[in-house]
Specification:
Length: 424
């Protein structure tokens, strides 16, 4: 029997990896411009970390984690998201003592045992950014602006939706109103909502059943229950976005799938990916660092799904550059092959992307391969040319070619050719 990848786990094949590299490169560049530094954290953590941060009664913790018991009896889980591990590391290494405000990002795989579909995998990848130690509303706008800039530079168009989930001061009034609303509908909700109504009422608003959703259209919205501090903060976040010219729409029914959020939450959404409409999402989590045993410091961040970004790039036809090589070295004859082998190595040392085969195929077949690989130049080297100290350099785009003198000084020769090739 053939061994196959697990359901919901996907190989990223060479033909796709150029897009992935583009996404990652663009994100890193933008993150660095905003003063973020990379942190790399483990994929495996104690289960307790996620239960305490994401929340016991969330879908992620209740039914989507890859959890197992280690040899020594500890419950471990593959990380379903990046915020909790980054905060764990931030606390463990007292990073706040190095700099009062930490701007961190991490890129890598996350794991959730969801039902796979387009844009939803069990192993997926996130670009995830967090700012710890500051709570100015303009920072919230700045963090959203950073996510927005990544998308803009990738050439993608999405919608930014924002909401505020208030703080422990305004939650109780809202919860009471929501409890009353749900109690009045007891018996007419789906099984999940009936249960959630008692365990984690806010989560019912995220129900996918159309019958429930219809009823929740008239549910109380937290934005109408914000305390003066949270209301002022939210207005200032909107003003901050306005100052940067970033269009945001309020979505008063936005609830996030993780329990740690306070105040600002946001989603970057598209109508082009079917049910999996969020390409990114995040928000403020002012109580989380302390909740995990760290100092009392606020935080805000977001995660963007790389699979969804790649799908959207294909959908919107933006930013895709095929992987190309600079030069195909076509050598004919054993002596030329040996010399070409050294030349290819020297050129690679000079930064030129070179492809060369070692099996001495016909010129026709080698040129065909050069075309397939998208080479910009081909260097043709036969035993005869070699004997007369020459090779042919063909410009594959222009279709022109000229004779190139070889030299005994391989390094100088390679440097000169590299300078010529790498200009364009
Ligand atoms: P999240 O909304 O659970 O938030 O995930 C963020 C993004 O990850 C989603 O908008 C989506 O693009 C992508 N994503 C989530 N699940 C899947 C999946 N199964 N398959 C493919 N893509 C997926 C968080 O994870 C928070 N940690 C974000 C955050 C950071 N909040 C504050 N800081």
């Amino acid at each position: 029997m053939k061994v196959q990848a697990l359901k919901g786990f996907k190989d990223i094949l060479p033909a796709e990896s150029a897009v992935w590299q583009l996404i990652e490169r663009t994100a890193r560049e933008v993150f660095h411009r905003f003063g973020f530094a990379e942190i790399r954290v483990p994929i495996l953590e104690k289960t307790d970390l996620f239960v305490r941060s994401i929340g016991e009664a969330t879908d992620i913790v209740e039914k989507e984690m890859y959890t197992f018991i280690d040899r020594n009896g500890t419950s471990l889980s593959l990380r379903p998201e990046g915020t909790a591990p980054v905060l764990r590391a931030f606390i463990e290494h007292s990073l706040h003592t190095l700099q009062p405000v930490q701007r961190l990002y991490t890129i890598g795989p996350m794991f959730r045992h969801e039902r796979p579909q387009k844009g939803r995998l069990r192993q997926f990848h996130q670009l995830s950014a967090e700012v710890l130690g500051a709570d100015h509303p303009r920072l919230d706008a700045e963090v959203m602006a950073m996510a927005w800039m990544v998308l803009t530079e990738l050439g993608l168009t999405v919608r930014l939706e924002i909401n505020s989930l208030g703080c422990p001061a305004c939650r109780p009034d809202f919860k009471a109103a929501l409890d009353d609303f749900l109690a009045a509908r007891a018996g007419s909700l789906c099984e999940d909502c009936e249960r959630r109504r008692l365990t984690n009422p806010l989560r019912v608003l995220d129900c996918k059943s159309s019958h429930c959703r219809e009823q929740y259209q008239t549910a109380p919205a937290i934005i109408d229950y914000l305390c003066p501090g949270c209301a002022e903060h939210f207005t200032a976040v909107e003003q901050g976005l306005d100052l940067l010219g970033i269009p945001a729409m309020r979505n008063k029914f936005m609830v996030r799938g993780l329990d740690y959020y306070t105040r600002t939450t946001f989603e970057l959404v598209t109508d082009q990916l079917g049910a999996q409409s969020a390409v990114g999402a995040g928000g403020r989590y002012d109580g989380l660092v302390a909740q995990l045993g760290g100092p009392k410091l606020p935080g805000i961040g977001f995660g963007m799904g790389m699979e969804r970004l790649a799908l959207l790039l294909a959908e919107q036809g933006a930013g895709t550059t095929p992987a190309t090589i600079d030069l195909y070295l076509a050598a004919l004859g054993e002596t030329a092959c040996k010399q070409g082998f050294r030349m290819a190595h020297a050129l690679r040392g000079q930064g030129v992307r070179v492809a060369m085969e070692h099996d001495n195929k016909s010129l026709k077949s080698q040129m065909k391969q050069a075309g397939k690989l998208g080479a910009r130049f081909a260097l043709i080297l036969g035993d005869e040319e070699l004997a007369s100290g020459q090779a042919v350099l063909r410009d594959m785009t222009a279709g022109s070619q000229d004779t190139l003198a070889l030299s005994d000084n391989l390094q100088n020769w390679a440097a000169a050719l590299a300078a010529r090739i790498l200009v364009g």
